[in-house]
Amino acid sequence: MAKITVMFGTESQGEFTLDKPEMKVGRAMDCDIVVDNLGVSRHHCSLKQEGADWVVVDGGSNNGTYVGGQKINKHTLKTGDKVVLGKHTLVYDAAGVAAVGAQKKSQQMGGEMTMFVDQSALAKAMASEVGGKRMSLALSQGGREVLIPLLKDETTLGTSADVPVKGFLVKSVQAKVIRVGAVHRINASGGWRSVRVNGVKITDAALKAGDVILIAGTSITYK
Length: 223
Prior knowledge:
Elements: E1 3-8, E2 11-17, E3 22-26, E4 33-34, E5 45-50, E6 53-58, E7 65-67, E8 70-72, E9 74-76, E10 82-85, E11 88-93, H1 119-127, E12 136-141, E13 144-149, E14 154-158, E15 163-164, E16 175-180, E17 183-188, E18 195-197, E19 200-202, E20 204-206, E21 212-215, E22 218-222
Parallel strand pairs: 3-4, 14-15
Antiparallel strand pairs: 1-2, 1-11, 3-5, 5-6, 6-9, 7-8, 7-10, 10-11, 12-13, 12-22, 14-16, 16-17, 17-20, 18-19, 18-21, 21-22
């Protein structure tokens, strides 16, 4: 018997005994292991038994499946291997069994489009945090909070941007969050729609933890 532990950072999101010849992993609720994050494809990868071994096979995911920092199509697992899907990690234990009640299925986000995650930018962000903390933008999708890490030097907000913002007369890029040294600043792109921070209309402003960005009724928290 073997098990997978789903990790988000240092926090366990659930344990799963590999008790079927094939275990599907992804954002969709028909997966055996549901990973609830927009950086994970609906059917991201599979864990398959091959003789005495287990292998992980990428399912044509948008953001790829990584083991040991390398993008893989197929990889034979050994105890301690960490399979990275977006911001989540699957830790493999060849002799493990999930604790009773440890298995979880997260709330479905399968209806949303997969958000692309730049793995090299993610690694850079982990090594270079603002004020000792990795900052994100938080918004509500499907009745729950979704965290979008600020992985790049410039993150766009708008109808066709890194952070999706819908609304009448919202531009494809309505605003940008730009990393400047040890801080993030938000720049408005102009047009009919205003960008507000804590209720105040801005063209350019430095962000601090807890600030609320408002664009066309969409509320986004910097945290």
